[in-house]
Amino acid sequence: MKHSFLTALSPDQADAVSLLATEVRFARGESIFRQRETANGFYLIETGEVSLEYELPGKKTVLIQNLGPGELLGLSWLFEPNRWEFSATAASAVTAKFLSAADVRKQCEQDPKLGYKLMEAMARVLTERLQATRHKLRVFVERASDDDEARQVC
What we know:
By secondary structure, this protein is of the alpha+beta class. It contains four helices and eight strands, in the order H-E-E-E-E-E-E-E-E-H-H-H. Helices cover 36% and strands 28% of the residues.
């Protein structure tokens, strides 16, 4: 399996991870996962686009980021309580590889070097998502307030 997320791994490590992957498909508009549900793995997007959204009270959602081919979807499996922090919906037809958290953890226990490399790669993605969320928060605060001090919050 060739995916840009796996380029940080050695060829042997990438092969080991690839063996754990299952192909999945989602139709446009289909929910991939929902905020607060159990996070049991992650996806490597191959084709299509996914909307990553945060659900607000009152059934309102805020688009955090659109993800596409070559990107990783799903980081909440890494941390207890292993619940999705966002919702993901297929914005177009999507094909991806799904990797079970249990399988990945087991592989990482057997190969700690693989675990380290995966965590480095996951940390990069986590940082990018944090920055995207921070940007959305900044825009929200600026739109909600004409107060210059509120604009300094972010």
